[in-house]
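Field reference: sequence -> structure
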Amino acid sequence: MTVVGRNKHVISFKESLIWTGVWVSCALLFYIFILHYGERFHGIASMQDLLAIQAKYAQHLSLKVDNFQESLEIYRQNMGMEFLTGYLIEYTLSMDNVFVIMMILSSFAVSQKYYKQVLFWGILGAIILRF
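Structure field:
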């Protein structure tokens, strides 16, 4: 808790907007990385490797068997789009958690300066109790 909760303060709208921007930027940078180097996750070095991965994970992908570079580009774009789609879905679904958490914190009359600490212990408890 000394690392996570060392600066107890009420988080302003500006600060929350900045942190949201930081994390969304990290996701977009990862998306760009996937667009340029996505094949490295599966160790694709040849057309045979790409076809094997396609058969296992992406049967819907139409690759150009005679052109490795174009097929690799199609594969990277597909990986990038799948990541971005998954990220946006998860981000959207997490918004309902924000509303539930706010209702819980307000119903227990938790002071805003303790939100971070209460959330930390609540999330840690949820992770531990899940097992």
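Note: The CA atoms of residues 33 and 51 lie 22 Å apart.
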